[in-house]
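User: structure tokens for this one?
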Amino acid sequence: MDVLLARLRGGSLSARFMRSSILTLGGYGTSQALRLASNLILTRLLFPEAFGLMALVAVIMQGLAMFSDVGVSPAIMQSKRGDDQKFLDTAWTIQVIRGALLWAFACAIAVPVSKIYDEPLLAWILPCAGISLFIAGFNPTRMDTANRHLLLGRLTGLDLLAQIVGLLVAVFLAWVLHSVWALVISGVASAVVLLVLYSLFLPGPSNRFQWEPEAAQELIGFGKWIFLSTICGFLFMQSDKLLLGKYLPLDQFGIYNIGFFLASFPILMGGFMTRKVLIPVYRERPPADSAENFRKLQKMRFLLTAAMLGLTGAVSVSGVLLIDLLYDPRYFMAGAVVVLVAAMQIPQVVVLTYEQAALAAGDSRRFFVLSAARAVLTVACLLAGLGWGGLFGALVGVGVAGIAAYPFVVWMARHVGAWDPAHDIVYGLVGVGIIAFAVWVNAGALADLAAL
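Assistant:
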């Protein structure tokens, strides 16, 4: 224990990595536990259609945010000027302008989207939900500075506090209103609380409107590929909801999203970890610079992948049991969804620790190529799977797309000296074993899903 505590102290990269990893894992785990608790309460206060409707809103809001992402946060984290206040104020100004445009666009598309999905309520919900995007544009760049230097303790605490307030608002309004508006209003409330907490309790100077041409040029130059990458990333991560939202009845779509929420916990946590922790690590210790750097990063990757793969496997194997224990019979179909979604994410989990290496090196172009390849493969395999086997086939298609994208991951990782074939072989074989075991344990539930 004393040895572990000694390794956690100090300002070395290893100590900061370990502290940040523990904080990130603890914070994210707590966040997801809070979401699960509220989800269990809300499913008893609301109806499945409400979750289907909010899933559509969430996808559209995330799409707006990602389709306009110019990479302000990763630019601050990797730039040599990432601590320069003029650079930070210019980045904040870009972020505020973007937030205002997003809200305006959410209002503009509300009616057309409501007609596409034949849900008139979307015409009213989207403009209200879009207010949260406008508010988030004012979040101070001090949060990016904390991420840049792996100082995540206070940031994690503030995020959790804002989430708790939002969840309490959601549960109270759901109890009072029994309406989907409870989820809409709570989302806006969370954005307001987070902005106030960041502004009051994060150290550093406040942002002000400023436009320095040199800073803007660097941010836009780096961000143009991030912009394209996030468009592709949205299609990669949300194409299932866009397609299934049209393919499935709204109540079944809500049930699918309950299953997806549980199944995606490990990979979302892994993505959160790599964005928060690995960009600074790759920046300070580029794996191509020395064999020592590569070995240290290799150890970190082995540990992170083992943790993520263990969690993903556990969720996949126990998916049906989790739904039976936690939810009422209306949501029984979500059990097989949990099993299959988690199993088909394993190819992505194996290579997740490579994804930020190119961004840390400032190579956003190669990151875009990987994102584009994944988007094309995912949409194509989803459509093929839907035609072959409905929902079951679509989810299998996601797994096939993950395997097909591997050569692009290798191409990107090799360029920055991060590719580790030993890591991929070991965890690839472990992943195959986990998938086979999960399918064997839950064969009956998967057969029922395939018969739908």
